[in-house]
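Checklist before submission:
- one chain only
- standard amino acids only
- sequence pasted in full

Submission:
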Amino acid sequence: MRILAFALLLLASGLAQKTPLAVSNLYAQDLQIAPAVLEVSPGYTTLVEFFAPIGDQFVGNSGLVDIKTSSNLMVIFPKERAGETDLIIRSKGYAMLFLIKVVERGQPRRYVVNEQRPAVSLSTPTTQPTGNLGSFRYESLRIGGTGVLRGQVAEVRLNLQNLALDNLIINPSTIRIAQNNRPLDYLAYRKLLSDKIGPLESQEFQINIPRAAGGLLEMTVQAQNEKTGALYNIRAVFDLSDSPRPARGIEVNP
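Returned file contents:
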């Protein structure tokens, strides 16, 4: 407790000296799918603030960093000047994945881990953490996606994770791609050959769209709960550029 209090005091003193403080927002639902990078620097403290008290913690290389926790706060101190290791944090039923990187770019850093990502409006652009696959959850369905423009060919990846205890049926024939209200031809590839996504399993579609352009592109597809018959109309909007970007917006209509 004294060490953590001292670390917070150091962080506050850095702010008083107008040392730049980098603040990054992360989301627990994303961290169960892909790890987030936590950068730490020699001579500086890195503070990670969680939405709930920290439970278990597991670090791959304890010789690289020293980690102190108190309630929902975690402070990371580098022991070496370079290196990386994985970190798993359990809190409020979430198992969250991180990759700690020791870098020379010295500055105090603060990461805020929120439980859920705010609801996304398709008409409003959103900013998501670099290196994380943004995701959206609707009932027992978690959806994530990225889009990129490579020359005149767009590549869209859509990941569907079934969190229910029943099979989820995906119908690839319902995929529709449009840009500027104009339907576009596409080639769709999928990770699993079956149209069924079993409980706690996921299916990823990679869709290549020739003759696409930069800007907004819309994808729709249907999914159905095999037992209840509940139908999900999934719509995702991507803002295409020459670098991969998370979906600008995702919505599900029953």
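Reviewer check: DSSP finds two helices and 21 strands in the chain.
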